[in-house]
Model the fold of this input.
Amino acid sequence: MSVDRRTLMLSGVAATTAGIAATAPQDALAPPSQRSPGPALDGEICWEEAARNIAADDFGHIVHQKPDGVLRPRSARDVATTIRWAADRGWRFAAQGQRHSIFGRSMSREGIVADMSKMQTVQDICGDCVTADAGATWSDILAATLPQGLTPPVLTDYLGLSVGGTLAVGGVGAATSRYGTQSDNVIAMDVVTGTGQEITCSASNNPDLFNAVRAGLGQVAIIIRATLLLVPAPPHVHRYVLFYPDLNTMLRDQRLLADDSRFDAVLGAIVASQEGHWLFRLDAMKQVPSSQAEDSALLSSLSDLPSKRQISSLTYSDYVNRFAALEAALRNTGQWFLPHPWLTTFVGDSQVEAVVTDELNRLNPTDLGPSGQVVLSAFRAPTIKSPLLRLPSEDLCYVFNLIRFPTTKSTVEIARLIDDNRAAYERIRDAGGTLYPVSAFPMSRDDWQHHFGPVFSRLCEAKHKFDPDHVLTPGYPIF
Done:
């Protein structure tokens, strides 16, 4: 097994990551030296080409849209002032955290992009909650909370994502089946609306705004900071990597584990062997098991291949940072910096075997790249409370993602994979599946309306109330 393949097999990654431009404002057509200087701010708007070029790219390296300026805010007032200033000029505004979008969703071709990465302070830890700026990463959160024996209940597998970025799309992780998404575990948020108002919202204070911001794709407000729920963090965990002979056997155990909750987190993945065969794996975690006997009890009645089990004990910190080795390997080979045409969806239990079998039969393993994988993880839909995160209408659902790490940046090949994503999405949608909206393929306004379905009218009402001029986040062409 190659180094990349072994790193992938043990990483447990379940990565959970084209705008339509308006007519350019007259001021945007002028060179930077002739543009208006911008509003008075604590921070600054940077007009230089280098800063604009950085903002024109993201982790996907597929869509490139250069803004007119890059806001480097130091306060919520900077964001509010700049949104009002941009709106007066017919410009658009988008926020970027770690720029880990994969299809230009956090870009704005005409207007201002806010680089939120410097607003990254982790502020108060009080009891079972922590307050942090939207630009803070989940690594930043853990650095502050773990010394106090606390952790957010749900973490994305890659901890380098920003708090604001994941709350805007939902944030799915290994513990989603028990605790929901990251957006379900936010207590309150300070936001700036599309009209430039600074508002604090929660389930009891401005709940309509709160529910439109969580997994709301940045359509009604920009998150400035968030207060997040914390739970006790275990000092150690046991990790169980289990292998299966086929898809149906793995799904049988996923259903069993979704019912009895014997593990604290379970991830499913399908990877290609060096011979081109599909390999099926579950990666399960249990907090602080005390003995080998407990290991035996946890693994009883499972249908995996006992001879291939990999059991290890590690610190909680090492467990949640398990993606770091794969990231380092991808950076070393340069694949981290190549295009990432990912597809991220949800599939209902009644259709999962048929859908996944069909997609595996169509999928060329080489299109995933040597470090890519198919994610297939079960969760109970009722655990997810964010109303704008759309799920199949079934109790048991699955995260179903194609995590591609191509070895090429050929525009022809990447365009083919994007077309494949679109075709796969349509098949999944026709089978009752839904989109986790960070995928790499274009969506029309009609597509988005179909995606949101019965809650689309609720999102429209929030848009009309909080961003009536459609200033925010044009990378999602929803309206």
